[in-house]
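Subject: sequence -> structure tokens, single chain

Hey, anyone have a minute? Need the predicted structure for the following. Not urgent.
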Amino acid sequence: MKNASRTICLLCFLLAAPAAKAVFAQTDQTLKVQTVEADSHNYVPLREVEMEVKDFTYPTLDDGKFNLRESVSGKKLTLVHYFAAWCHNSNFDVKTMTEIYDKYRDQGLLVIGVCEYSSRKELREFIERHKPTYPICIEGDDRKKNRTGTTHYAYRRQIDDQRNWGTPLNILIADGDIQKEGEVVAKRIRIAPGEVIKTELEEIIRQRLGLNR
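Reply:
Had a minute. Here:
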């Protein structure tokens, strides 16, 4: 009887317990490897790390060129935002990126979007849907190619990012950490392998821009 009572209690507990909410992991729209709740997020705090961020020159959607070192010149803070147009969490993070950029661009903040693993058609649709106001360039434009040669992948490896595709990935660089010349633009950064926490990011920005005085 005691065993039967324990079994009944356990069943009651399981039936009464609320269903666990799905936890987001990277989703590939082509592979359809899993189902993700429409409102699920992957918020990650920014942390300081010693990591070499290298200069790059990538094409833009209109076939122009975008160079990192040239762009950071004269900026107090630069946020390099790696994203994929089809990525669930990138489609959330773009709103934060746009709001932060529009609010602080005149005070010295630059946001740079670096698109990964997305076709140009996907990127155009992403831009039409979200209307980001910051510049966007393209490092990787095909999910079928070997992605291990990208700067995005190299940075993920250095912080042991275990996500499948690893977007979004956010790198914040302060002007005082920028190397004046050479292939390496910065050796100390803040990084978030996931969606940024807007309140935390904004507090860091305000401190760095001297807006809390």
